[in-house]
Write a structure and sequence with these properties.
Jelly Rolls; 237 residues; 22 strands; globular; single chain; mainly beta
Length: 237
């Protein structure tokens, strides 16, 4: 088993006034040659956008893009004609494919919005762009892991063009779970949203990240109350 730990205070940071962003992996003006990706997980940004501000219309292609609001609401618009508000509890996926333009704005005029922006390399290029969004309830993942993204359209979870599985869990102190990887050769990147966890014996705190590969399962234990975790299983190559 191989592991790599990224403590929260070692992440790159960009403060643009309207946007405060922490980068687990190299992004924009932050470049660390030792932290360019974890397998096919390319971007993990922890963004806070000021009230009434946001990312104006811009272009993406050949990337699977996932947005997870943590506080507040995002207003999404894109060149496919999609116009949606993404709220805390929602998960959004875009397959940029052959090319898409979109904007993500804070839907509130008086409160900041906080969300994760995640990019995963696809396993097929130049597909027709696609948008997906679901609403989940935190109680459905109390003291257990809830799958939110997988590689196949099943009408329940969101899906992306990659052999990747995402899970979220909300745990009380002392509760445990075991995660078994779906595919040989994949790894898991764990990101601590809130609270404290021990993963395979390693102690992690709020906004810490840990990459685990060359194993078929991992064990997690919440070491504080109101502990929240995101697990991202992706191919390593």
């Amino acid at each position: 088993m191989k592991t790599i730990i990224h403590k929260a205070n070692t992440r790159g940071r960009a403060d643009h006034g309207w946007l405060n962003s922490y980068h687990t992996f190299s992004f924009a003006n932050y470049f660390n040659p030792e932290r360019t990706h974890f397998g096919l997980l390319r971007v993990l940004n922890d963004d806070t956008v000021a009230a009434g501000m946001g990312f104006g219309k811009h272009h993406h292609d050949n990337m699977e893009i996932i947005s997870i609001p943590l506080e507040g609401d995002l207003q999404h618009q894109d060149s496919m004609g999609t116009s949606q508000v993404i709220k805390h509890g929602d998960i959004q996926v875009m397959s940029a494919g052959s090319g898409i333009e979109h904007s993500e704005m804070n839907a509130s005029k008086d409160k900041a919005v906080k969300f994760l922006q995640i990019w995963v390399f696809p396993n097929i290029e130049n597909v027709v762009p696609r948008y997906g969004q679901i609403t989940l309830h935190p109680d459905d993942r109390k003291n257990k892991l809830q799958q939110i993204i997988n590689p196949e359209e099943n009408g329940v979870n969101l899906w992306i063009h990659q052999d990747a599985w995402f899970n979220m869990g909300n745990f009380e102190k002392g509760k445990t779970a075991e995660y078994t990887l779906h595919k040989k050769g994949n790894g898991v990147y764990a990101f601590i949203l809130e609270g404290d966890f021990t993963i395979n014996g390693e102690k992690l705190n709020r906004r810490d990240g840990m990459g685990i590969s060359e194993t078929d399962k991992i064990s997690i234990e919440a070491t504080s109350d109101k502990a929240e975790i995101l697990l991202m299983e992706v191919p390593m190559a």
